[in-house]
Amino acid sequence: MGILSGGLPNKNSTHIDAFRQGLRDTGWLEGRDFVIEWRSSEGRTDLLTPLAVELVELKVDVIVTAASTPATVAAKRATSTIPIIMVAVGSALDTGLVANLSRPGGNVTGSTTLGAEVASKRLQFVKDLLPGAARIALLWNPDNPSNARLYADLRQRAQEAHLQLLSVEVRDVKDFDSGFRLLTEQRPDALLLTGDSMHLVHMRRVIEFTAKQRLPAIYNTRESTVAGGFMSYDANQPELYKRAAMYVDKILKGTKPGDLPVEQPTKFDLVINLRTAKALGLTIPPTLLLQADQVIE
Fold this sequence. Notes:
The protein is an alpha/beta fold. The protein has helices at 14-25, 48-57, 69-78, 115-129, 147-160, 176-186, 197-201, 203-213, 222-226, 237-252, 274-280, 286-291, and strands at residues 2-5, 37-40, 63-66, 84-90, 108-113, 135-140, 164-169, 190-193, 217-219, 231-235, 268-273, 294-296.
């Protein structure tokens, strides 16, 4: 099977560990029953299409796309016959990856994320933490197909919450400097991040910038908070990868991907880094701490 990622080739991450465990739970042993062909673009979207074509030419039995809408788009363009299992991909309907969540048809299925609901929840965290906040910023990549819907949802919910939304567009690694300059000039009260693969590859830069600027930021991944970010809220990724293994099992046993409903996450993780909160001069409300799935002290 092939795994196509838009980020770094983290072959031993907790997500992939969960995927492997899910396969073992259904009786599939790596090395005996299957081998994995890894292809990672390391944040370079332009490499995804040739990498997807490589997997197709290898005649893999299934392609798993790891938390990347651009990777899934590239895989779908490369093949209409090899089953594609997307994991935590944003806006599967809006981007045309599937025609219907309950019966996707075609060769793509898996899990898609709840952009609007998650955006609303992150905004509520900002209001809880900073009741006087007037402006928030979103650092995002407009070239990522899933981000257009996320930005529209967030803009609407920001208006409803009487918050101004500052758009900080980072399409390429060279855009980080101009994005940071805009944030320094405009001084928003808080920053929201997306799960764009290119951004995640360079997330250390964002964490260091927000620490230097004392800018509270809500990240898209637990790993960003563990690495020193302030807070993250997103679907539980290991659970989604374990569910992806169930899709692999069913497809390799003969089920057509188009007959398998696309799932949406039901478990979300709130992670708070108290060391970073202290450095930012923030006091976390007890009610918010009680909601946290993990508190880093």
